[in-house]
Design a protein that fits this description.
Blueprint: E1 8-12, H1 17-28, E2 33-35, H2 47-57, E3 61-64, H3 72-77, H4 79-99, E4 104-108, H5 137-157, E5 161-166, E6 168-170, H6 183-197, E7 201-205, E8 211-212, E9 214-216, H7 217-230, E10 237-239, E11 245-246, H8 247-258, E12 263-267, H9 282-288, H10 296-310
Parallel strand pairs: 1-2, 1-3, 3-4, 4-5, 5-10, 6-9, 7-12
Antiparallel strand pairs: 8-11
Helix pairs in contact: 1-7, 2-4, 4-5, 6-8, 6-10, 8-10
Length: about 300
């Protein structure tokens, strides 16, 4: 409580899926001065807007969550936008924070920064061992540059910035839009709507063989807060739940939990994305005591219940 009591904290993306939970947890910990820049007022791709934000807010810390994101389809349709917007936003936010002597910057990266073919579980030291999976490489590389910037700025300027790598997130309040949703909300929506229409089947992209790891959004927010409080090193840190499930296994589980009675048809003309994803979470546990608490099935049940209430 005492750590956050008098801190002035900017949370970019504070109105978003993950950001709302980070803000809630900051408030719960006694933080009274939380600034959430809205895009209508502050275009975080512009230096002048960032300087205005920092001058007005006088932050002790910036937690940078804002990002232009989406699933495989959105990444394939918007590679240039995903690269430019994410890169310029992060680079300028950190550069102006350094220039204005903000005491700490927490950069939240992405699992998409890892190489396409990476030994499982992914260790932070493997992050430079290859090129990211092609469908989301522009986004992954844009966010990966924040790690380079963070380490370079600590080395040259003594700037205190840290870089976190959360795995795929899910939970209540996720993005369920057809055009930009990730795999869990997309599957939940397909099953719930198909059940209402009494459809005989749903179609899912890929072969189902690819694997993923998922972290409940409340756990991710807690990990970010712990790192903001306790971690002050250049080394990147994974935030994950420490398990791996195939997309086929995920689809079967969501079919069961939504009580959809039809079958799954796999559209193998569509890409699988990265072949496997699973993180080594040893460093987060060692450095700031983070371990996921919410089990996957419990988190899915909460997410499905939220969507059924709000759809």
């Amino acid at each position: 409580m005492s750590f956050w009591k008098d801190k002035r904290v900017i949370v970019t993306g504070g109105g978003g899926f993950l950001g709302r939970l980070v803000v809630d947890q900051l408030r719960h910990k006694g933080c009274k001065y939380i600034i959430i820049p809205r895009s209508a007022k502050f275009d975080l791709r512009k230096t002048s807007a960032i300087r205005k934000l920092y001058t007005q807010a006088r932050p002790d810390m910036v937690i940078h969550l804002a990002a232009v994101v989406g699933g495989i389809g959105a990444n394939r349709e918007n590679p240039g936008k995903f690269f430019y917007d994410n890169l310029i936003m992060g680079v300028e936010l950190m550069e102006q924070a350094r220039r204005m002597k903000v005491p700490k910057f927490v950069a939240v990266g992405t699992i998409c920064a890892y190489p396409k073919f990476c030994p499982v579980p992914f260790k932070e030291d493997n992050i430079w061992d290859g090129y990211p999976e092609e469908t989301n490489a522009p986004y992954g590389l844009a966010k990966k540059m924040l790690l380079v910037q963070s380490q370079a700025y600590r080395q040259q300027y003594g700037f205190n910035s840290v870089y976190l790598l959360p795995v795929n997130l899910y939970g209540p309040g996720d993005n369920f839009s057809w055009g930009s949703s990730h795999v869990i909300p997309a599957l939940i929506r397909k099953c719930v709507e198909a059940k209402k229409r009494r459809d005989k089947q749903i179609t899912v992209w890929g072969t189902g063989r690819a694997t993923r790891e998922f972290l409940y959004v409340d756990d991710a927010a807690r990990g970010i807060i712990l790192a903001a409080e306790k971690y002050n090193k250049s080394d990147p840190v994974n935030l994950g739940a420490g398990f791996e499930i195939s997309i086929k296994g995920l689809a079967d589980l969501i079919v069961r939990l939504t009580k959809f009675q039809g079958k799954i048809v796999w559209d193998t003309t569509k890409p699988d994305g990265q072949p496997r994803r699973c993180l080594d979470t040893t460093r987060a546990r060692k450095e700031f005591g983070f371990k996921a608490k919410v089990t996957f099935e419990a988190g899915l049940k909460k997410t499905i219940a939220w969507y059924e209430r709000n759809s």
